[in-house]
Structures are given as structure tokens and as C-alpha cells.
Amino acid sequence: MARTALVISAHAADFVWRCGGAIALHRKKGYEVTVVCLSFGERGESAKLWKEEGMTLQKVKTARRKEAEAAAKALDVHDIQFFDLGDYPLVMDQEAKFRLVDVIRAVQPAFMLSHSHYDPYNTDHMYATQMALECRMVAQAWGHNPGQKVLGAPQLYLFEPHQTEQMGWKPDVFLDISEVWDKKRAAIECMEGQQHLWHYYTNVAENRGNHFQRNSGGQSGGRPATHAEGFQSVFPRTVDEL
Q1: What is the DSSP string of the chain?
Q2: Rounded average pLDDT over 237-242
Q3: CA nearest 34: which of 91, 108, 85?
Q4: CA distances from 85 to 6, 151, 209 (A)
Q5: Is the pLDDT of residue 97 over 90?
Q6: 56 Cβ partners below 8 Å, 6+ apart?
């Protein structure tokens, strides 16, 4: 049975900037990675598209979906699902929550990825993580849809927000994505509506590559990494050795 992972992305581009390397790397390792985009980011994260004459909400959604699907293909995503719940603000009613619970139970992820706990610049992001935690909890409940396979206890990793110092986000895991950086960069370039972020997230990956090397031994035998991603784990990890 294939190992699996699940990404819960507030908007259609978030999974690309923040954990595209993790997706591509784990696909290479044989994981089936599912991405859920709760919204397209059509109202709040598509300024370039809205500046075009004659733009409509549906046209923006269509463009964003095409970008996300192209990026998912570049990263070799196993399955990408669009909930189309709207953004600014993102809101999930009980039906949408249970829909996400169904996905979590169907995927049975070894680990999950979502946003930082706090984001005053974009409350959709922290709301998505609140929903990820809530739906993870429901998916573990034996009394929810009895007969379905319940969820175990997958780690939830919080991927890097845009302005880390303002979010209270502190990475405790660095993942070397050097060998799949070309895939992440290709996915980044699919997001034509947010071209202003291409260089920014390339720079973030390079900086985290430096942090990976320093924390793996630095100049005393650390493993070189050209690019990396940082994550903050929510739950304690159970290990047999350090």
C-alpha cells in the first residue's frame, strides 16, 4: 500500500510557494500526495488578473485553476481537489468540514501540511490551519460515520508563511529539496498571476538551504543543500532513537 501525504492549501497557489519541494520530493520517494485547495484565491490573491479589462470572478477562478493544475502536474501531485469555498474571507460550513474529513479519511495521510497558526496579513491562512486541525480531530473520532476507517495521528507540519517574524512561526524541521528544486521552480513559474513572488520564494529556498547545511553540521561535515524548506511541527514526535 502506497504511503500518502495531504496538503491543505487555503488558496490555489499556496501549496506551490510553501511546500512544492516537499511534494515533489515525497512523490519521488513513492508517496501519493493529495492537495486540497479550499479556494482559488480569486478575490484576494489575483490582483494582476483583476487589472485586466473585462475581468470577471469566473474568469479569475478559471485562470487560477489552470495555473494550479499546471503547477500540480509539474510537482507530480497524485490528486488535486478544489473545494471552491471562496476567499477573503474563507469560510467552511459543516458540510465543507465533513467533506474535508472524508478526504482525510480516504487519504489516510502519514503526514499533513498546512499554514502557520497565526497570520495577521491573511486570516484565510490561519483559518485553513484551524480547519485542518478541527477536521483532523473529527477524522479520528470513532463516532463520526461509524464503519469508516478512522484516522491515526499524522503529524501536521506548518509550512513557512510570507513574513515569518510577524507570524510567530518557528521552524523545527528543514527539508533538503535540492534534488527537486527544478520541479518546484517550474511549478512556481506556472503561477503567472503572482509573478512578483517568484524571486521571493526562490530566495527563501536558498536561505533555508543554508540553514539545512548549518544544522546538519555546518563546516564540520554538514551536508550541502542548495535549496530547502522549513516546517514547524504541531505534535510531539514519537521515536525509538534520536
Answers
A1: ---EEEEEESSTTHHHHHHHHHHHHHHHTT-EEEEEES---TTTS-HHHHTSTT--HHHHHHHHHHHHHHHHHHTT-SEEEE----SSS----HHHHHHHHHHHHHH--SEEEE--S--TT-HHHHHHHHHHHHHHHHHT-TTSSBTBPPP---EEEEEP-SSHHHHT----EEEE-GGGHHHHHHHHTT-GGGGGGHHHHHHHHHHHHHHHHHHTTTTTTPPP-S-EEEEEE-SPPP-S--
A2: 87
A3: 108
A4: 18, 24, 35
A5: yes
A6: none
**CA atoms within 13 Å, Cβ hemisphere of 37:** 27
Tell me whether residue 35 is exposed, middle or buried, using C-beta atoms within 10 angstroms of its C-beta: 0 to 12, 13 to 18, 19 or more. Answer: buried
In terms of residues, how long is the chain?
A: 242
The whole model's pTM is what?
0.96
In this structure, which amino acid lies at residue 170?
Answer: K
| 8 Å CB contact between 85 and 91 | yes
Q: What pLDDT is recorded for position 242?
A: 83
